[in-house]
Amino acid sequence: MKKVLLAMLMVALVAMPAFASVQNVKVSGDIESTFVVRNQFDLGSTTPTDKYRQHFLLTQTRLRVDADLTDNVQTTIGLINERTWGEETDVNTDVDLNLAYVTLKEMLYSPLTVVIGRQNFAFGNSFVIDSAGVNTGTSIGAGGINSAAEDLSKRTALDAVRLILDYNPLTINMIAAKIDENNVLGTGNLKDDIDLYGTNVAYQLGDRWQTMVEGYVWAKLDQSVNTVVGAKTDTVYMPGIHVSTNPIKGLNLSAELAIQRGNKFQAASTNVKREATAGQIIANYQVPVAMIEKYKPTVMGAYTYVSGEKNPAEAGAQDETRYTAWDPMFENQAGGTIYNTMFSLSNAHILTTKASVKPIEDVTASVQLDNLWLDKEVRGGSLTVLRPDGSTLAASSTTNKFIGSEIGVGLAYAYTDDVTLGAKFNWFTPGELFASSNQNVASQILVNANVNF
């Protein structure tokens, strides 16, 4: 009899459906519609029918579900659809996976949290590492605004395993991310992946200035080039430091410095050493003058430097032993500007000033000026310019280093706590770097309505 009861119990356990005990579920998301007008994004003085222009509307929809399970287990799933209006193709109406990860808190012991799957992360001011990746006109590979407005995409996640050790005030992040798996067929070269590995250590000093110091080491390994005879894995090894502090009321200062070493693969048997450098200084100040304090005036100034190569297409031609152009890695800054769409964050000095004010309740107005110079002059008479659809343009160039100036004016209205209406107007004036055939002013208008829920 005991054996019969035991057998029945085992059958019941096997037949029982397995499910996690859900303690709490949160549904959130956002819907943003944007009217896009762009002119002269090729900077060319061509005929009206050949000028690079855009005039369309797009809607970006994200839905996120967070579930708290038992024993410090959380799951997150995020869906995304990005589409241009009036396009009813399968690509335009597809709903894609944007987030899918599990968070295991206090795993093995209390300070450790493990996050597994497609997830978001960012460090410092997103100068070098952000899961959104490089938000220029480079290919996003999917979705309804692919080959249309790729620089505006909200696909902001990477497949990764992340370990977080919280020893307050010390926090350690260790990440291994798969950027591109490439061949998974089981035949041919399987060692062709692109991977990202890194550690970020942040420490709050606990002083009255709320100073935080971050040190990091990242490695990007591109084995996809190994299909070429004589090639070596393209590697970027990047140590760096970021410091943020608040010396007086309303003022935040931050500075970051990083270097890149490794191997730069060019072609065939051409492999040269990387020796690149980048740095950034940012100051944000909320003006505490009593007479205007109610308008919340804020000013910002930033200087960015990323080293360059005189002719990246022929690295090693000037110096066979090194490659000095900065690899943008996974930066996520200056989104929504024209220069960010047109140029990669490399070989440049960028000086930015910005001011914002709230003239009336719920309305914020801002103006921003960016000036850009090359670090190294371009040789060969041609400069590669990126475009929003992912294509490139070979613009005629000179030996002058002034890239150009961009001015942007923005207005945002918080209609309710959940709804924001905004408009941005930008004009980019090419500098003496460009030949007369590529000195037309590029302009952009972005008018949007965003709802969060």
How would you characterize this protein structure?
This protein has helices at 2-15, 90-93, 338-342; strands at 24-39, 54-68, 73-84, 96-105, 112-119, 158-167, 170-180, 194-204, 212-222, 234-245, 251-267, 270-286, 298-306, 322-323, 348-357, 363-374, 382-386, 392-396, 402-414, 419-430, 442-452. The chain is 5% helix and 51% strand. It is mainly beta and 453 residues long. The strands form two sheets. It has an 18-stranded antiparallel β-barrel.
Structural features:
453 residues, mainly beta, Porin, two-stranded antiparallel sheet, 21 strands, globular, disordered N terminus
Average pLDDT score: 88
Please outline the major beta sheet: 18 strands, antiparallel, barrel
How many strands? 21
Number of helices: 3
Give a brief rundown of this model:
With 453 residues, the protein is mainly beta. It has helices spanning 2-15, 90-93, 338-342; strands at residues 24-39, 54-68, 73-84, 96-105, 112-119, 158-167, 170-180, 194-204, 212-222, 234-245, 251-267, 270-286, 298-306, 322-323, 348-357, 363-374, 382-386, 392-396, 402-414, 419-430, 442-452. The chain has one domain (25-452): Porin, CATH 2.40.160.
Chain-wise SSE layout:
Layout: H1 2-15, E1 24-39, E2 54-68, E3 73-84, H2 90-93, E4 96-105, E5 112-119, E6 158-167, E7 170-180, E8 194-204, E9 212-222, E10 234-245, E11 251-267, E12 270-286, E13 298-306, E14 322-323, H3 338-342, E15 348-357, E16 363-374, E17 382-386, E18 392-396, E19 402-414, E20 419-430, E21 442-452
Parallel strand pairs: 12-14
Antiparallel strand pairs: 1-2, 1-21, 2-3, 3-4, 4-5, 5-6, 6-7, 7-8, 8-9, 9-10, 10-11, 11-12, 12-13, 13-15, 15-16, 16-19, 17-18, 19-20, 20-21
